[in-house]
Design a protein that fits this description.
globular, seven-stranded mixed β-sheet, six-stranded mixed β-sheet, 16 strands
Length: 506
């Protein structure tokens, strides 16, 4: 009995302290001089783990090659115009603050290195290996949380050039915002917009978090209780919405759908237990394929009355299914859940840094062997997600997580991590290839981080008339992602052959 009372007292004290800090954050009375980090961005900052670092990792392949001097000059004239890239993060009891790094050194942020090759290893394989190593190399928190690595002499499948490996912590921005930032870096790109001082309180974010938190609490508090009384108590302390918040939107029109989506996310079952799911280690593997012509993907989609997205996701599901077969597993009837980022900001505001996206749970039918049947099953599931509030709910959860003590945050996010096998991005890029420092960006790839125990990251990016499929995997769960990559094009070829046999309108 004495132990129980002590635990409750400790939990109550921790909850009161957390609530006090939250009030100070909202009122702007706590923290160093600088811009307070938003709740969502704070959540991403705290999610670094031994198995997954919260970095967005990108690769550019350039021909002809460029020099380190040209790269640094371009970054100084474009990227550093955004204040966030000259600011470091200073954490305190209530969260974190963006503070200008007075000792920032461009030579440390933008480095050059020689590609180390093993015996009989080509440059692409060596580059993929290096990307995997850097994906698990933490950024220095004494300085801005980003770094560019230039491989000046890179001899890829298409000829000699350069490769740039980019690492940017997710707390700085999401993928959509970073694409806009990168577009300002290319030759002829739009200049960075003039910055305006932000208000300390972001009403929309606060409303979403507070309005959605209370009903979610009722669904998940028991699960959170397993992480300890402090986590459950902290969540209870934050469950009273601010007066008048719900009145800023006609909740009567969306209430049913909102509650349905809350329940669906809180109660969704675990996905299939394949070899791609489990406890990850501390090393990563990276692989990507050569681009597939986008016009061919469009033609297949038209023949099947399906979207480009339906076709590509079906190929991903098929490639994973074939990979499992090659390992002696039977994927029949199995499916894996992939969390897909969904942009929540107007595209005209894509330049604004920070995180403004939700997550939609897409279940991939890896056990459907017939490629046509698989396309239509993917299409059915994608249509079901349209009009869903689940991305908005996921955004609110991240906002709430940024307010909680670390154990409570981990418990909340862990509810979904264990139900997920992969994180997937599917981003349409420029139709024409871009120029950078006078060279052509021949290939353009990036991966968003996996959280918790998720060990697979999938990237589908259309760029310059082609579509490129890439993987980043935990080496314990999937030591050979190239094997999955090698199945992607054959899966598309199956669909292409079938579509050629179908009747076309005159």
């Amino acid at each position: 009995m004495v132990t129980r009372i002590s635990a409750q007292q400790a939990a109550t004290g921790a909850a009161k302290s957390a609530a006090k800090n939250v009030r100070k954050v909202v009122s702007g009375t706590l923290g160093l001089s600088g811009e307070r980090m938003t709740k969502v961005d704070t959540a991403w900052l705290r999610m670094d783990s031994e198995s997954n670092l919260m970095m967005i990792v990108g690769v550019w392949i350039l021909r002809p090659g460029i020099t380190i001097g040209a790269l640094r000059e371009r970054i100084e004239g474009s990227l550093l115009k955004y204040n966030r890239f000259t600011q470091k993060v200073v954490e305190d009891a209530a969260g974190a603050t963006w503070v200008r790094d007075t000792s920032f050194d461009i030579d440390e942020a933008v480095v050059t290195e020689k590609l180390k090759r093993k015996a009989k290893q080509n440059d692409q394989d060596a580059l993929q290996e290096r990307v995997g190593v850097l994906a698990m190399q933490a950024l220095d928190r004494k300085h801005p949380l980003w770094q560019f690595h230039l491989i000046e002499n890179y001899d890829g499948p298409e000829g000699k050039g350069s490769a740039i490996i980019m690492r940017i912590h997710h707390c700085i921005a999401d993928g959509i915002a970073l694409i806009s930032v990168m577009n300002s870096m290319v030759d002829g790109g739009p200049p960075p917009p003039e910055r305006r001082a932000k208000k300390q309180i972001e009403g929309a974010e606060d409303w979403i978090a507070d309005t959605l938190l209370k009903p979610f609490t009722q669904l998940t508090v028991k699960a959170l209780g397993a992480a300890g009384e402090g986590a459950a108590s902290a969540l209870h302390m934050l469950s009273d919405p601010k007066a008048g918040m719900a009145g800023s939107m006609d909740m009567a029109k969306v209430g049913y759908q909102l509650m349905s989506d809350l329940a669906a996310m809180a109660l969704m079952p675990d996905d299939s237990k394949t070899r791609l799911k489990g406890k990850p280690g501390r090393t990563k593997r990276v692989a990507w394929c050569q681009p597939i012509p986008l016009n061919e993907v469009k033609s297949v989609g038209k023949a099947l009355n399906a979207s480009i997205n339906d076709v590509l996701l079906s190929c991903v599901a098929g490639a994973i299914g074939e990979y499992l077969k090659s390992k002696g597993d039977d994927p029949t009837g199995q499916e894996i859940r992939a969390m897909v980022p969904v942009n929540l900001r107007p595209m005209e505001q894509a330049y604004k840094l920070g995180n403004r996206f939700g997550l939609a749970p897409l279940v991939l039918p890896i056990g459907v062997d017939n490629p046509i049947e698989r396309v239509y099953e993917v299409r059915r599931r994608m249509n079901h997600l349209k009009g869903s509030f689940q991305p908005l709910v996921a955004f609110s959860l991240l906002a709430v997580a940024g307010l909680l003590i670390k154990p409570a945050q981990d418990a909340m996010l862990g509810l979904f991590n264990k139900k997920t096998t992969a994180v997937m991005t599917n981003v349409p890029g420029p139709k024409e290839k871009l120029k950078f420092c006078g060279s052509t960006i021949e290939e353009n790839m990036f991966w968003v981080p996996q959280t918790g125990d998720v060990g697979v990251g999938v990237s589908i990016l259309s760029y310059g008339g082609g579509v490129q499929f890439g993987l980043i995997t935990d080496s314990t769960l999937c030591p050979d992602p190239q094997t999955i990559i090698d199945e992607f094009e054959p899966e598309f070829a199956k669909l292409a052959i079938v579509s050629l046999m179908m009747p076309w309108e005159a």
